[in-house]
């Protein structure tokens, strides 16, 4: 990487002299990213799409979901490899809907069912409490709920 940068800098005058403007008709423009795109829709988005949103938006916009009408900001996700190694589908025996939360005590990862698979959450931010680990969220919130009420939602107005 450093060698490529040094080579480019060394030949910079040549590159500037041989440059030409891009034709407007062949220019491609990316759509502007909006903060609302950070909303996670567990029912409609695959685990890969959610992970890509996390990687793309991290540092610019929050990735968020809702728990009991409260906004939860996802700060850190487990890699798809870590999710695959956990083999959560074999641990959760019953069929669950997207948004269902399962805490893996050994790995200390909060897994959430997506459209096609599972996402692994390592840490979150709750507006009133600040940053907490997946284990702290499990201990403070999920463990006190009946399993059929342990769901994240895409919008604020859904009761679990």
The general outline is: elongated
Q: Percent range for helical residues?
A: 25-40%
CA(first)-CA(last) distance = 50 Å
Radius of gyration: 21 Å
β-strand number: 6
Following the backbone from N to C, one meets helices and strands in this order, namely: HHHEEHHEEEEH
Share in β-strands: 15-25%
Total helical segments: 6
Segments where pLDDT lies below 50 for 5+ residues?
A: none
Largest sheet: 6 strands, antiparallel
Average pLDDT works out at 91
Broad structural category = alpha+beta
InterPro entries: Formyl_trans_C, Formyl_transferase-like_C_sf
GO molecular function, one term: methionyl-tRNA formyltransferase activity
Protein name: Methionyl-tRNA formyltransferase, mitochondrial
Please characterize this protein's 3D structure.
The protein is of the alpha+beta class. It is 28% helix and 22% strand. The chain is built from six helices and six strands; from the N terminus they run αααββααββββα. Strands 1, 2, 3, 4, 5 and 6 form a six-stranded antiparallel beta sheet that branches. The longest helix is centred in the N-terminal third of the chain and has 11 residues, at 47-57. The chain is elongated and about 70 Å long. The mean pLDDT is 91. GO terms for molecular function: methionyl-tRNA formyltransferase activity. This is Methionyl-tRNA formyltransferase, mitochondrial. Residues 32-141 form the Formyl transferase C-terminal domain. One of its GO terms (cellular component) is mitochondrion. InterPro entries: Formyl_trans_C, Formyl_transferase-like_C_sf.
